[in-house]
Amino acid sequence: MWFLIKPYQTTRENRYLGLPIGFGFLGASYGLSAFAHSDPVFSVSPLMWFQLLARPFAFAFLAFTYYFSKKPSKNTRLIWDITLSVMIVALTSLFILFLVSPGLALDNYRLLSIYIRSFNIVCLVYITIHTIRSHLKTQDSKTILTPFGYLLLGIGQYSLLIWNVGDVNDKFPFYGGLALRWTGLVLFLLIAYRTFYGSKKRSFE
Amino acid sequence: MKKKARRNKMKIYGELLSILKAEKSNTDKIVLIHVQSKMNAPFDRLKSYISDLEDLNLIEDQMSYNLTQKGKEFLDEYKKILDFMERMGIADR
Among partner residues A9, A195, A204, which is closest to B83 by beta-carbon distance? Predict the structure, then answer.
C-alpha cells in the first residue's frame, strides 16, 4: 500500500488520495469476500453485504482519481474535495444504516448485487479507457500493463455478474471471475515492483 | 482564465534538482536565468528554493550547484514516483 500513497505524499494533491483509498477498499472487499465464500454452501451473510457494498466505493474512488487526474486546477481541486467528502458521508451512512437495521438490508442480495456489479463495470470501463488514452499519449510500452489490469478486473466483475444472474451453483463464472481478479491485482503489484525495484539502471552513479 | 495549481515543496525541489542536474550535464557553469525559465518561477523565489536545497543538504553549495548524495537519492526517488504515476495513468501532463 505504501507506494500508492507516494503520489499524494509527493504532490500533496488530494486527488491522488483516491488511489490508496480505492485500492484499500478493494483489498478489504476482496479479503471479506474470500472469508465469506469460504463456506461451501452459498448463503447471504452480513460479510457478503459488506464486501458487496465496499467494492463500488473502491471503484468509484479510483474512477474519480482518474477523472480528476487530468484537470489540475483550483476549481477541480475543490470539486474533488467535495466529491471525497460526499463519498465518505455516503459510505458512513450506508454502513450505519446497515448496522442499525441489518434485517432490512439482507433482502434482495442478488438483485442489488446485479446493480452494483453493473456500476463497477461502468467505473472500470471508464478507468480502462482513460488509461488506454494515457498509454496512447505516452507511446511507452511500460504503461500498457495498467489498462490491461483494469480490463481484467472489469471482465472479472462481468463474470461475477453472469454468476449472479444465472445459477449460483454453477461455480465456473465465479472461479473465472476470481482468477481474473487475482491476475489483475498481480499486474498492479508487478507495476509497482518494476517501478520501485526493477529499474536499477536509472539510479545515479 | 484557469488558475494553475500551486506546486508543493517536494515537487518543486524534485523539479529544481532535475533541472540543475540536466543543466550541469550540458554545461559546467549554470546560468540561473535558464533555470528560472525552465522552472517557471520568479527569480527571488528561485533563489529561495536554491537556498532551501542547500539548507536541506540536497546541493553542495550555491556556486557549483552539484547534487549531494542525499540530493541524488531524493531525485531518484522523485523520478520513481513520477514514473509510477505515469505507469498508473494518473500523471498530469
Answer: A195
Give the pLDDT confidence of A69-90 residue by residue, as tens digits.
876 666 777 788 888 888 888 8
- Write the residue in A16, A147, A194 that is nearest to B90 by C-beta: A16
Q: How far, in Å, CA of A64 to CA of A54, rounded? A: 16
> In chain A, at which residue ranges do the beta strands (DSSP E only) sit?
none
Q: First vs last Cα of chain A: how many Å apart? A: 29
pLDDT in tens, A151-169: 999 999 999 888 888 776 7
CA distance linking residue A38 with residue A32, whole number of Å: 10
What are the CA-CA distances from residue A81 to residues A44, A68, A76, B6, B93 (Å)? 35, 11, 8, 16, 21
Q: Residue B70: closest CA among chain A residues belongs to which residue?
A: A204
CA distance B37 to B19: 10
**Pairwise CA distance, residues A4 & B89, whole Å:** 13
Q: Which of residues 127-166 of A touch B (CB under 8 A)?
A: 130-131, 134-135, 137-138, 140, 142-143, 145-147
Tell me which chain A residues have a C-beta less than 8 angstroms from the C-beta of B81: 6-7, 10
Q: Give the whole-number percent of chain B exceeding pLDDT 90.
A: 6
- 10 Å Cβ neighbour count for A190? 13
- Copy the grid coordinates of residue B8: 508543493
Chain-centre distance for alpha carbon B32: 12
CATH architecture for residues B9-86? Orthogonal Bundle (1.10)
pLDDT at A124: 95
- This model of the complex carries an ipTM of 0.79
